[in-house]
Amino acid sequence: MATLNLDELKSLLEVTNSKLRDLEKLDLNVDMTRGKPSFEQIRLSRDILTNIDEEVFDRNPNIFNYGIGDGIEEAKQLFASMLEVRSDEIYVGGNSSLNLMYDTMLKAMYFGMVDSNRPWMKEDTVKFICPVPGYDRHFAICESLGIEMITVDMTPNGPDMDAVEALVKEDASIKGIWCVPKYSNPDGAIYSKETIERLASMETAAKDFKIFYDNAYAVHFLDGEFIEQESMLEACKNAGNPNRVIIFASTSKITFPGAGVGVISANRESLDYMEKLIAAQSISQDKVNQLRHVLFLKDFDTLLEHMKKQAAILKPKFDIVLDSLKSTVADERIATWSNPRGGYFISVDTYPGCAKKIEEECARLGLKITKAGSTYPYYDNPKDNNLRIAPSFLGRSDLVQAMDVFTTVLQKIAIEEMLKNEQ
Amino acid sequence: MATLNLDELKSLLEVTNSKLRDLEKLDLNVDMTRGKPSFEQIRLSRDILTNIDEEVFDRNPNIFNYGIGDGIEEAKQLFASMLEVRSDEIYVGGNSSLNLMYDTMLKAMYFGMVDSNRPWMKEDTVKFICPVPGYDRHFAICESLGIEMITVDMTPNGPDMDAVEALVKEDASIKGIWCVPKYSNPDGAIYSKETIERLASMETAAKDFKIFYDNAYAVHFLDGEFIEQESMLEACKNAGNPNRVIIFASTSKITFPGAGVGVISANRESLDYMEKLIAAQSISQDKVNQLRHVLFLKDFDTLLEHMKKQAAILKPKFDIVLDSLKSTVADERIATWSNPRGGYFISVDTYPGCAKKIEEECARLGLKITKAGSTYPYYDNPKDNNLRIAPSFLGRSDLVQAMDVFTTVLQKIAIEEMLKNEQ
To answer: Which pLDDT band holds residue A2 (cuts at 50, 70, 90)?
Structure first.
């Protein structure tokens, strides 16, 4: 991409401002803040709503009663195939993996984990490593529970492992790290084999160090191709740290957001410990919904076919975003962005000091985008230079308009800031 | 009921022992430990499984996506009518009220409640009052979280309020009380207006004292008649303690156990506080299941009609238990029992020191009953004299056999114990 000189920037700013005056007249009112599937995607799973007929009902009496607290066997098998673990390494939870992550973190604080000497909350300080940019809801869990967050930079292969290794080796108050290993939120990074093996085997001052492994997008490819990834649980076992990782996943973006099925996977010893704590909390999760999902998604191959249909809807939307950025942004200093192979987001790095202003100006024009700073703990991005684009929910024509506004605003604010710095 | 003399007891024991030898040959293998609905009851709600058709699906797009974290409006209205509160005093949760109780208690420990000076766990000791006999899963929550349990006796009108008032007035470490206000587990007590008003207005040393009000059986009558009960939330408001009560309920024993809908009701200020904490934990509960329930149960009158069908299945089973006790137990010292108008249990008070032996002897004969002592905190019933009968799950013929075993064993063990004490 080109690098424009001062005059070129000034004349581009004029063109951009003129375009903005036109876009103001659009009177847009659209919301791109969250990674919500569209109704078209949700419709793909409609058969799940009616797939328990009289015959299924009569054949599975135990599904409709109390008990089977860790989930039905068929659901364990399905999720085991998706997460490449054994089916006895699966706990099938309720409708939300976020809930499972929060619950697990709160239990770690209140009770400690299987290999803790005492509850985490009894330590003077508890810290978690948050690769940035990252997922705001992970940060919100830490903030709510009083866990201090330390950032390390993301790379295309995962967190900056040199930085991670140096931190965890020295500081015993660092109890864990948040990871989204495939198509990470928001920058779409895919953890490499080396990253996974280093996370599994690194020396940690805290002997009960935990990897909170949010495999939210395990099968959420955009290009139709399922990516095999080194198993983190296997890697931890091989490194002699079998209880280090707790894996979370759900079908929220496979079937129905909010009415899917969430799961935990971990080493059996860890699961035993957690399930004993859960016994005071829950008699059983919603096994009827588990059965619905098993009947609908059937097996891993059928699941992948289903995800290809999701990708066919999502891919053109990602292309709209990427094409719009590519065709508008005229200088590489204005912005760079991720080009993800899956997941739900495109991460845009703007000229420093621009992200908040862009968010505000977009809002003024009727376009809500994810809050600037939300990809950093405490909404504190020191460079104020990262924004998350969530293309999934909007219809294509709305998305085209939204991106027209976004890229124009992005260019305007960035050039203004660049010119200010030139003076 | 008669009081037998020594000779009569001895001869009755001989008859009983002889009958037991016959019952041994039955080779029974039945489980009466839990209050599980029968499949016949569950079948009553089968239409819920398929009541979201294409038209409903298209008309309610937001139900199938993220958001609406506190539940759909129609569900709030339905549960408000059931619990006699306002619909804006309802939070619609996941599949389990037990989960909501555990979560609320853990949040009280970790964060404190809306009117707390600090998290409960920062106090030297946290105590809860547990009316006995009571519900083992309430006790398990306290035990798991390290909350000390203090017992008070139940009366037919609710907890012994003189004892409760004396305790909470003096001891600021008592942070709350467990209540099952209607058809209480296990003795079927119905809290009187006076009990409710005294609970709402009593002076408590802890200013953040909480009534955990598990209204599990609000509409679970056996005799077809819905019982109006003073509203605890209103009573608390009237007494100037609007945040004192947190009400829990679910449809687990209305529709599907484990695949129903759980709710919290509380004063708006309390709910605001709790929902702010929940925001870090959950984006939304399963609104699809909420919609299913609204479409099926429709309104309070339809709900009551549904509960009449449940009662028609349950009542004959309770009668089998009561008839068996009445026709077998020949001396009032051997056992007395509750005669509930609703709920899921019959509470049997045995001759002191017999409950554990009865449980063991029943187990030997192939009949599992609820663990003796489980109606007391820490499984510690000082008199060893209370057992809980759960008639709902078994088919009628199994139940007749089970009660034959139970009453015979009950009589045998009690007479042996009485004779021992006479020597």
So the answer is: confident
- Looking at the complex, does the CB of residue A55 fall below 8 Å from at least one CB of chain B? no
Residue window 264-283, chain B: list those with CB within 8 Å of chain A.
Answer: 277, 279-283
ipTM of the complex: 0.96
The angle subtended at Cα B328 by Cα B325 and Cα B332, nearest 5°, is 75
- CATH number for A6-32+304-422 (one of 3.20.20.120, 3.40.50.300, 3.90.1150.10, 3.90.226.10): it is 3.90.1150.10
What is the C-alpha radius of gyration for chain B, rounded to an integer number of angstroms? 23
pLDDT recorded at residue B272:
98
Q: Residue A327: left (phi > 0), alpha (psi -120 to 50), or beta? A: alpha
Instruction: State the smallest CA–CA distance between residue B331 and chain A in angstroms.
Output: 37
pLDDT single digits (tens) A338-379: 999 999 999 999 999 999 999 999 999 999 999 999 999 999
Question: Taking Cα atoms as reference points, which of A28, A140, A33 lies closest to residue A372?
Answer: A33
Locate tokens 């909480």: which residue?
B210
Q: Are A162 and A185 in contact (CB under 8 A)?
A: no
**Are A355 and A362 contacting, i.e. CB atoms less than 8 angstroms apart?**
no
Looking at 3.40.190.10, 3.40.640.10, 3.40.50.11720, 3.30.780.10, the CATH number of the domain B67-298 comes to: 3.40.640.10
In this complex, which of B66, B95, B141 lies closest to A34 when CB atoms are compared?
B66
d(CA A373, CA A386): 7
Instruction: Kindly report, residue by residue over A255-292, the tens digit of the pLDDT.
Output: 999 999 999 999 999 999 999 999 999 999 999 999 99
Alpha helices for B175-222 (secondary structure H) = 193-201
C-alpha distances out from residue A167 to A120, A170, A191, Å: 18, 6, 19
CA B156 from centre of chain: 15
Instruction: Give the whole-angstrom CA distance, residue A322 versus residue B350.
Output: 76
Contact B95 A285 (CB under 8 A): yes
**With respect to CATH, is domain A65-298 assigned 3.40.640.10?**
yes
pLDDT for B422: 79
**Distance between CA atoms of B49 and B71, rounded to whole angstroms?**
19
Query: Which of B39, B99, B259 is facing A61, going by the closest CB pair?
Result: B39
Nearest to B23 by CA among B404, B359, B410: B404
CA distance A71 to chain B (A): 11
Average pLDDT over residues A128-138: 98
Domain boundaries, chain A: 6-32+304-422, 65-298
Contact B284 A258 (CB under 8 A): yes
